[in-house]
Specification:
The protein is of the alpha+beta class. It is 39% helix and 15% strand. Helix 6 (266-278) links the parallel strand 13 (258-261) and strand 14 (285-290). The radius of gyration is 24 Å and the shape is globular.
Length: 628
């Protein structure tokens, strides 16, 4: 796990690469690789590569980068290739010829060219200079676990693991107004935009060729929702168990001890349980966070302890406080690179900081909700569709994975979501599916005169949403697949960005075994009526996990992610901090936001509301990165 950066001159007559520029890029991502660093500038000073290394595989210097192979190709690489030994064997490499997965990537590229990425299983972002073809080959993993950003000027291309390393080279630092509207509407960014005008994210599962001053981007993998031959639920459960166990075992490679985040939910708990099963002799550690001052509403550590007790591993817990927020929030914003509307990012920063004292590698549970359908809003959407079908007499026509009668027992899960239901149905019922789901993911209605929407011009975030919603040739009859596909392509990369930044801020490698290509591809073949049987989120996944987890974990219906008592703090311990932030001279000069109106919302915000935090995060980002 590492950080990469570089500068590529597009024209032969451009000014030579300056080592000081590369040193500055390297310094700005130093936290990603505290173990070693390197810089390479080619002899003609047409390009320069910088690398920061966190040593996990091959702790010797043989894995240092930038790395050159005998043919003259150079690479900077960030990630872990979990099947690198299998690939080395297929390439006929003797074990003495390679010690790191970086060497295997170079050999695979030499053999298969750009198709090498189709063979890789893991998380990666890399750039290879092809000496023979005289071009740069850039690639990012299938799911976007590892980041890759770039900026194209008139004569250069700058790339890095984090936007902050590119900022010194922007002609003007300004906000991307389309990305800003995405953030306010969806609490994430669509279509590879970043909030920094000019800096673009290479999409997951894409490669980029930079040759003769031109950039060409293409997709190398796509998730297709194709239901296979009819099978019973037991088949899918056993297949999930097999693939999950193989993936977790694969994710345990390395030359350092391993731990895991354990929230007490299905995903992280199953990963920890299977990991411990495969590491019986080692001291496997679990890490969890809590807010004990606020009781069970913000403390799920007792569920995490159940998992640890059943699987016989030690669980270390950190009690997060408002004092931690004051001390570290500026660091959180800096490392995130962009504001996020989920306050759990702060909590994750604290747990990563805590875990980094004991481990260099941790396993996490990201991905389960997107690939197996775990979000409660799917139940909300289907409840309405079931009512519509019952009225129209169409619930048996094959397009609905649940009926009105079967969904009723699971509606108890909506008890805490009654305010959302009220808002969802406020402006109508029974519209087209994409319209209804847009209402579920659209956060703009909660924003009133706090925002000057004219600042974002006439950009339509809804039009952009529709392109993504229908952009993968999903069977439009399967509402469930359409919803999960949208979240897979938007929400999951946003969550992975937080996962990467909050762990790498402390030189900690976070691995996500649920995001294994074979497992994810298999999940897309499971019929929606088995995944989501009777409106029960993650139905087949829950059944598959019964052999690993306590029944209390499998059957719980109150999992909330990483609940953070941010609104209690804002009303109490952190009120002065919020007031001072929005009353600052910088905040008052924003053209699109009214700080006074936001402050008025502090006492009106619900227990898990995100409005004040989302806008505070945005203002702190402005101030931290000095963006007007």
């Amino acid at each position: 796990m590492c950080g990469i950066a570089g500068i590529i001159r597009k024209n032969k007559n451009s000014e030579p690469i300056d080592i000081k520029s590369l040193e500055e890029m390297s310094r700005l991502i130093e936290h990603r690789g505290p173990d070693s660093h390197g810089i390479h500038i080619d002899q003609n000073k047409r390009f320069g590569l910088a690398h920061r290394r966190l040593s996990i595989l091959d702790l010797s210097s043989s894995g240092d980068q930038p790395m050159r192979c005998p043919s003259g190709n150079w690479i900077v690489y960030n990630g872990e290739l979990y099947n690198y030994k299998e690939i080395a064997s297929r390439l006929g490499l003797e074990e003495l010829e390679f010690k790191s997965d970086t060497q295997v990537i170079l050999a695979a590229y030499a053999k298969w060219g750009k198709d090498c990425v189709r063979e890789f299983r893991g998380m990666f972002a890399f750039v290879i200079w092809d000496e023979k073809e005289q071009y740069f080959f850039c690639a990012r993993d299938h799911f976007g676990i590892k980041p890759f950003y770039y900026y194209e000027s008139n004569n250069s291309v700058y790339f890095a693991s984090e936007p902050k390393a590119i900022l010194p080279f922007l002609r003007n630092k300004s906000i991307n107004r389309k990305a800003l509207k995405d953030y306010l509407v969806f609490q994430l960014y669509l279509s590879n935009k970043t909030l920094f005008e000019g800096i673009i994210e290479l999409p997951p599962a894409h490669i980029m060729i930079i040759k003769n001053g031109s950039l060409t981007i293409e997709r190398y993998w796509n998730l297709e929702f194709k239901v296979g031959e009819s099978r019973n639920s037991k088949y899918y459960e056993e297949k999930i168990q097999d693939l999950l166990e193989k993936s977790v075992k694969r994710h345990l490679i390395g030359d350092v001890p391993i731990g895991a985040y354990v929230s007490g939910g299905l995903d992280s708990s199953s990963i920890a349980a299977i990991a411990k099963m495969n590491l019986p002799e080692s001291e496997f550690l679990g890490f969890t966070g809590k807010f004990s001052k606020y009781g069970k509403s913000f403390d799920e550590s007792h569920y995490a302890q159940l998992v640890a007790d059943q699987n016989n591993f030690k669980l270390l817990s950190y009690d997060i406080t408002s004092s931690d927020f004051i001390e570290h929030i500026q660091d959180v914003i800096y490392h995130l690179d962009s504001p996020v509307a989920g306050p759990g990012s702060f909590s994750q920063f604290m747990i990563s900081k805590f875990a980094s004292k004991y481990r260099k590698v941790v396993l996490g549970g990201q991905g389960g909700d997107e690939i197996f359908g775990g979000y409660t809003r799917y139940l909300v959407a289907y409840f309405e569709q079931c009512i519509k079908a019952a009225i129209n007499g169409t619930s048996k026509n094959g397009n609905f994975v649940v009926t009105y009668e079967s969904i009723i027992p699971n509606l108890i899960q909506l008890k805490q979501y009654q305010p959302m239901l009220k808002s969802f149905w406020k402006e109508g019922l029974f519209e087209d599916m994409y319209e209804r789901y847009f209402r579920l993911v659209n956060r703009a209605p909660s924003l009133g005169d706090e925002i000057n929407w004219d600042f974002m011009n006439d950009y339509s975030a809804k039009d952009e949403y529709k392109k993504v919603f229908f952009g993968n040739k999903i069977n439009e009859g399967s509402y469930f697949d359409l919803m999960t596909n949208y979240d897979f392509r938007t929400l999951l990369p946003a969550l992975l960005q937080v996962e990467d930044r909050m762990s790498m801020a402390h030189g900690l490698e976070s691995r996500v075994p649920l995001l294994d290509v074979e497992l994810v591809e298999f999940s897309s073949t499971i019929p929606a009526d088995i995944k989501f049987k009777n409106g029960n989120p993650k139905h087949v996944f829950k059944n598959a996990l019964e052999k690993y987890l306590p029944r209390e974990i499998i059957r719980r219906q109150d999992k909330m992610g990483f609940p953070t008592p941010i609104n209690q703090w804002f009303k109490d311990d952190l009120r002065t901090f919020v007031l001072d932030t929005f009353n600052s001279s910088n905040a008052k000069q924003r053209d699109y936001i009214n700080g006074n109106k936001i402050v008025d919302q502090i006492d009106k915000e619900g227990l898990y509301g995100r409005k004040v935090w989302g806008l505070l995060s945005l203002e702190l980002w402005h101030q931290k990165f000095e963006i007007n």
